[in-house]
Design brief:
It is found in: Membrane. By secondary structure, the protein is mostly beta strands. It has helices spanning 11-15, 20-24, 67-70, 90-93, 126-131; strands spanning 29-32, 37-40, 75-78, 83-86, 102-103, 135-139, 147-153, 156-159, 162-163, 174-175, 204-205, 211-212, 216-218, 226-228, 252-253, 259-260, 266-269, 274-277. It has 5 helices and 18 strands.
Length: 286
């Protein structure tokens, strides 16, 4: 038998193809999803390109070319490198720490142009901003801790790789490796040149005026506000972050203490605008 008449063995070819798309591009190969490998089609000699049932291959992370489509999958987008990599391959992809700014959240994707949406803008405190090597803190000059986190370096804020005008943030208010001494989140001044906040205003409390007072909720960090708990007079306090009430009246439940605990046989009393137990006291949950 002449060599030209010998049947071709596709095994070596298929084994060298390591992605679904590369594998299925060869009509004599088949992608095994359960093993994530390319194998010869069992009847490759009788299979033509038209006869092979098309397989829907998913994109691998490296095939995504923007933050928006990369963060929709199980991938990591490296902003400064402009690359999308698999979460399990992050260390091998950037062995020397080349990726300085990354995200897996679509809302943190940066846009291009004058209205740049930087990941830095999601940091609300100088301490968290300083921990990101691509960001710096611009103090607002009030000496109360208020400021803005923006992309930049030791010399000042930047837009992509270009320096911004000094008017964007005066040099004396730019902090890249340190933070202003006074950090009261805009709700108090500090005593002298210390970091001790004077009595907190605006319904806040804490060493940096970073919490809401009892009976109020919100996020007072960096000028945020606190609002009263809305509990229909059935609770004295609520969760400081979510506003969910800690109902104190028996038989009343709900985020705002607005309904009766029907699961434990409490029902509405329209006359007294309260809840009553349907059965004897022994039947209700105490």
């Amino acid at each position: 038998m002449k060599l030209a008449h010998c049947p071709e063995d596709p095994t070596p070819v298929c084994r060298q193809l390591h992605t679904c798309k590369a594998c299925t591009s060869q009509h004599f190969c088949r992608w095994r999803f359960e093993h994530a490998k390319c194998v010869p089609h069992p009847q490759h000699s009788n299979v033509s390109a038209e006869a092979v049932e098309p397989i829907q291959c998913q994109n691998v992370c490296s095939e995504y070319n923007s933050c928006l489509n990369c963060t929709q999958e199980e991938c990591i987008w490296c902003q400064n490198e402009g690359r999308c990599v698999d979460k399990n391959a992050y260390t091998s992809s950037f062995p020397y720490g080349q990726c300085r700014e990354w995200t897996t959240v679509q809302a943190k994707c940066r846009t291009r142009g004058s209205n740049e949406n930087s990941q830095c803008g999601f940091y609300k405190t100088c301490a968290k901003c300083r921990d990101d090597p691509a960001c710096g803190w611009c103090d607002d000059g009030s000496k109360t801790g208020l400021g803005t986190c923006m992309p930049g370096g030791y010399a000042g804020p930047t837009l992509h790789i270009q320096s911004l005008p000094s008017s964007t943030c005066p040099q004396e208010r730019w902090h890249f490796t340190t933070c202003p001494v006074c950090q009261c989140n805009g709700h108090a001044n500090c005593v002298g040149n210390t970091s001790t906040c004077q009595p907190c205003a605006n319904l806040t409390t804490g060493s940096h005026c970073e919490y809401c007072l009892k009976g109020y909720y919100g996020n007072p960090v960096n000028g945020g506000k606190c609002v009263p708990c809305n509990c229909n007079k059935q609770a004295d306090d609520c969760n400081r972050e979510t506003g969910k009430c800690y109902c104190t009246t028996k038989g009343i439940i709900g985020d705002q203490c607005e309904k009766c605990d029907a699961t434990n046989h409490y029902h509405s009393d329209p006359n007294n605008k309260s809840c009553y137990c349907e059965y004897s006291n022994l039947s209700c949950n105490f």
